[in-house]
Design a protein that fits this description.
Elements (H helix, E strand, L loop, with lengths): L2 H4 L5 H4 L21 E6 L15 H16 L3 E6 L7 H4 L6 H25 L4 E5 L8 E2 L2 H9 L3 E5 L9 H11 L4 E6 L4 E2 L11 E2 L1 E3 H6 L7 H9 L4 E5 L5 H6 L6 E4 L5
Helix pairs in contact: 3-5, 7-9
């Protein structure tokens, strides 16, 4: 971790006054954030209205931007990886016969659309933001350059990574693990539509229980639905914990970063 990350000044009391949802885990506003450099993985589906399931809902995106703006103003360095499933899903949409590589390339373009939507919402919150793409779209985004991305973070800019890894056959979960390792983040926050990792699929098994923490090896060996195996292995090999949490609850992004006891921590073993 660079010296700039360690020396960030934080004033959480000035930035978390809006956390008024008393049904959610409370945050001690006098405590510093648990992590100072994070990577947030947002699925493409999260950009759409739950009632529609496709497209980009500006109100939904504005909600995420507001939470990320509070983190940014508190000195937390924020990187994001976005999916594109609200516009195009390479694997499932290719089932109709399209070549997989072509379908995945279309999915990478969809992530650029979502990244630009999030950038626009963040800049309307007054947060300087840069989109870096793994595929060449020079008129709308920077090319991904690791050292430039790190410098953006050190200067207090939010960095949004688009275009996946730049290659077909890799998911945006793998992109999140790869960019997290390249940015030397302290944690990857996997924002989902469920409140954590379960011992089995709770939709199929009424006895499934939510796990407070679980090891990378257990996730891989028991095929738990967290991220794909390549992403989990990358995080394990680089000792980057993952927190899986429910994005639909307003304020949860901020609560997770401040160490609230929500979601599931995936870690390398021992105390997470």
């Amino acid at each position: 971790m660079s010296r700039a990350v360690e020396s960030v000044a934080v004033n959480p009391a000035a930035t978390l006054e809006s956390l008024e949802d008393r049904s959610a885990p409370r945050i001690d506003q006098n405590d510093p954030p648990r992590w100072r450099r994070i990577l947030l993985k947002i699925s493409g589906e999260a950009f759409a209205s739950p009632d529609v399931g496709r497209g980009v809902d500006p109100g939904v995106v504005a909600s995420y931007a507001g939470q990320l703006a509070e983190l940014n103003r508190s000195g937390v360095q924020v990187a994001c990886v976005v999916g594109g499933g609200n516009i195009w899903r390479g694997l499932s949409d290719a089932a109709a016969g399209m070549e997989r590589a072509t379908a995945d390339n279309m999915g990478m373009l969809a992530t650029v659309i979502n990244a630009l939507a999030l950038q626009d919402a963040l800049e309307r919150e007054g947060v300087p933001t840069r989109v870096q793409s793994a595929i060449t779209v020079d008129q709308v985004a920077e090319a991904f350059i690791r050292r430039r991305a790190i410098r953006h973070l050190e200067l207090g800019r939010v960095v949004i990574f688009a275009g996946g890894t730049g290659n077909p056959f890799f998911t945006t979960d793998t992109t999140a693990a790869l960019r997290g390792a390249e940015m030397s983040v302290e944690v990857i926050l996997k924002a989902t539509n469920v409140d954590g990792v379960y011992s089995a699929d709770p939709r199929l098994d009424p006895h499934a229980v939510r796990l407070d923490s679980v090891s990378f090896d257990t996730v891989l060996n028991e095929h738990l639905m967290v991220m794909d195996a390549a992403a989990i292995a990358l995080c394990r090999d680089n000792d980057i914990p993952i927190v899986v949490f429910d994005l639909s609850t307003e304020g949860n992004i901020r609560r997770v970063v401040w160490g609230a006891d929500i979601g599931t921590v995936v870690h390398g073993g021992g105390e997470p």
